[in-house]
Every structure is written in structure tokens, then in C-alpha cells.
Amino acid sequence: MAVGVVALRAFVDAFALFLWRRLAFLAFFRRTPVSNVRMNEITINVRFSADLVVPLRLAREVTVKNLKERLAEHLSLPVEEIRVIFAGKELFDQVSIKEYNMDEETTVHAVRSAGPDEAVVVGAEVCCPLGEGIITSQLSQEEHLARQTGKEGREAEKALFFVYCKRPCERVQPGKLRVCCAACGEGSFILEKEPSCWADVLSVGPLLGRCQACRRVQPARFFFKCTGTQGSPHGDQPPIVLPLIRYNFLKVPCLACLETSRVVLVFKCAHVICLDCFRAYCRSRLDERGFVLDEALGSTLPCPLNCSNSLIEESHHFCLLGPDQYLRYQRFAAEEWVLKAGGVLCPRPGCGQGLLPEQDCNRVTCDLGCGFVFCRRCLQGHHLGPCSAREEQQSGPAFGLAPFGAQSSSWEEASRLTVLSTTKPCPKCQTPTERSGGCMHMVCSRSQCGFQWCWLCQDEWSRQCMGAHWFG
């Protein structure tokens, strides 16, 4: 009996010690979260070939030499034969990876050199981010000073560019400039010279580099990545760089709301507007159809103060309106070009298709849209004889109603649009006629007229109509 009591007491003591150690272990990790222990680590994806990518979890302070050593273990290669390329530059062994502004899921390229004696060729400066020359060439001395001091300046060191990410972000995001071979698309590409202006980046050919895949000098092709996607694919809609958007180093107030924002749009005339006010400015001009149609730039806007030489050259800045309003902007721009080229827009409600008929043709058919046939001069349904007098537009309201509010809120206007969209006018007397099935041979319902006409041709009924499309 005594032996059993001793054994039980020994078991209880051992279990208590186990619980104490377990609780102490959990308390330690409660005081030191895993997120804090590993917050200084990032994943670097090393692409060694088209079908081999090695993910490495590394601390930000490790050097490129440490990265090569880790990679050599995976590939069973001598460290001396591995070369690492990132953003058009070969990386130095003694430099830490944080000096290259690498973030989570950054992709670098590794190639195998012919031997340990092969010379390391570095064309561009390796310790500054790709594209630094473009930004510094645009900054004044005051902006350089402001960028180097203050919290905003330190945060902006990594965000030299801003892009509009269509998918998946659908908003303005900080962007990263990357480069690849224009011939084969490989990222194992070493630039001979750092880009120094937007022309170097936005076109293919100005800068050259040595492609490690082609083994020869090739033109460089630059592209941008969104920092908010963390390796997520962009599909067929890569981010578009927005050159006018930048960090507000000088804390210049917005010309519209007079508030100071961290990120602003700077027009070529140097006037500053915050992004919210820019959206409101674009939306108001879009509602008024007040965009400027420029021969070289297309449909665009100047500075709100209408400064000379301030037109926005990159139309993707208007993506800030949002997907729906940007599509509306594109439709309005296309319509303005059609009208400027001497074309017409189909007047049938719900269509609006742009058409380019011959200059001496007054009978226009909407072949690309709804098939409506109308008169080019009065934009009414096709008719015989002279155009009838058009309805005069009512003058706008005398007080602050929304534009076109009087018409859009009118019951009679809604009825008129319904009639226009479901009927066609008699070519002789313009009486609205509705077809409810049957053949295409129409007889005007107005007793004083009785004109026989074709529903498709909107012209006088003939044997040709009878043979071609009597029953559609």
C-alpha cells in the first residue's frame, strides 16, 4: 500500500513539473510573438532558369554573399560561379539585400558564370534603385533637401514611381521599375547605363544591356510592377506608370481645397492638386463634356487654371475616375473624334454608334449598330422631302438644379424616348409607326398619308424590298 502511495505522489509531482514547464513555454511566446521574431525576414524568389525558382527566407541584413551561399546549397554549385542580377544590375557580394530595397516576394535572377575567373561586369550604379536618375533629374534643390529629411522623405525613398494597378488593386499604388531583354523577355539582363529620363523608360531601344540568356547586347525593355500585389499576377493588364503623381516633399497645398496631401498630382505648369480634387475636377469636366481634343494627345485636360502647355499627356491619369467613369471617358473621346472627322452619331436612344458616311450622303444607315436609318441633316428618321422644323431646346433652369435635370426628370421626356426607341417614322409624314411582327411592308397609319414603305430600308416599298427581305 505504501509503495502505491509513493508511486502516485511521484506521478503527481512529475505531472505538475510538466505543466509548469508547458505554461512557462507558452508564457515566453506570449511575451515574444512569432511575428516579432521573424518580422525582419522576407522571402526572395531566385529565378535560376525558366522552370526553376528557388524561394529563400532571409533576414534583411544578410549580404548578397549569404544569399549566394544559401542558393549554392540548393543547386549544388560553387558559390564563386553564381551571379545575382536584380533590376538590370549585378549585385555586389558585400552589400546587404536591404540596400537594394527588396521587399516581400521580390524576384531576383541568378546565372552561372563560365568560371570563377570571369570578370564581374556592372554597367549601372548598383547601390541606388533603378530609375533614381529619372526622379532626381526632375527635383529641384529644395525637393532634394526635403526628400532627404523628414518622415515623408524616408518613406518615399522606396516609392520613386506611382502606377495605376488595374488588377487586382484598381487604384493608385507605389510602383517598382524593372527591366528585361526586349528580344527574349528574360530578366537576367544587365544594363550598360542607368535611365536618366522618361524617354529612356517609356520606349524600347534608347538603352542597351547584356542579356545573359541571349549572350549578347540587346535593347532594354522597361516595365513597372505594383508594390501592393506581392507577386500576384497582373494578367493582360500590367500597371501603368503615372508620371505626374509624386510624393509632396515640399508640402505644397492643393490649389482647390488648400489642404496638404502626402501624394499629389503636379501639372507641367507646376500647379499642385490632391488626388481627390483631381477626381472631382475630371468628373465635372466629363459631365460637361468639357475635355480638350488635342491632335497629338487625344482627349485630355489642362491645369484647372487653364495654364498654357499644361495638358496631361498620359491619358491613364484619368483611370483615377474609376473603371466605370474611365469607360465613359473613352466613349466620349471616341465620339468627339468621330464628330471632328465629319461623322455623325446614331440618334436612336440607347445606340449612339459612331458613323462615317460619305459627305454628300444624307440618308445614313446605322450598319454597325441598331440598323436605324435617319436623315443626316436633322437627325430624325429618314424621310422624303425637306426636313421638318426641329424641336427647340428649352432654356436651362434659372436656379441650381443639376445639369439636364429638368429633362431627365420629365415624364413627357421619358415617354418620348420610349416612342423613339420602339418605333420608326413614316418616311413621308414622320408619323411614328410600331411594327408588331409580320412582314417588312408597312403602311402609314395616318389616314391622310397611307404611304407604303419598307421597315428595314425606311424608304418607299419596291420589288427589290419584296425579293430581298419581305419577311426579314
TrEMBL record:
Leader sequence segment: 1-16
Gene Ontology BP term (one): protein ubiquitination
Annotated pathway: Protein modification; protein ubiquitination
Name the reaction it catalyses: [E2 ubiquitin-conjugating enzyme]-S-ubiquitinyl-L-cysteine + [acceptor protein]-L-lysine = [E2 ubiquitin-conjugating enzyme]-L-cysteine + [acceptor protein]-N(6)-ubiquitinyl-L-lysine
This entry's Enzyme Commission designation comes to 2.3.2.31
Q: Which PROSITE patterns match?
A: TRIAD (PS51873), UBIQUITIN_2 (PS50053)
Q: Which residues form the active site?
A: C439
State the GO CC annotations. Answer: cytosol; mitochondrion; ubiquitin ligase complex
Mind listing the UniProt keywords for this protein, alphabetically? Autophagy, Cytoplasm, Metal-binding, Mitochondrion, Phosphoprotein, Repeat, Signal, Transferase, Ubl conjugation, Ubl conjugation pathway, Zinc, Zinc-finger
Query: Where would I find the RING-type domain in this sequence?
Result: 250-472
Localization recorded for this chain is:
Cytoplasm, Cytosol; Mitochondrion
The Ubiquitin-like domain covers 42-111
Question: Keyword Transferase, does the record have it?
Answer: yes
GO function terms (MF aspect): ubiquitin protein ligase activity; zinc ion binding
Per UniProt, the enzyme's principal EC class comes to: transferase
Quaternary organization: Forms an E3 ubiquitin ligase complex.
The UniProt family comment states: Belongs to the RBR family. Parkin subfamily.
> What's the stated role of this polypeptide?
Functions within a multiprotein E3 ubiquitin ligase complex, catalyzing the covalent attachment of ubiquitin moieties onto substrate proteins.
**The protein, known as:** E3 ubiquitin-protein ligase parkin
Native organism is: Haemaphysalis longicornis
The beginning of the lineage is: Eukaryota, Metazoa, Ecdysozoa, Arthropoda, Chelicerata
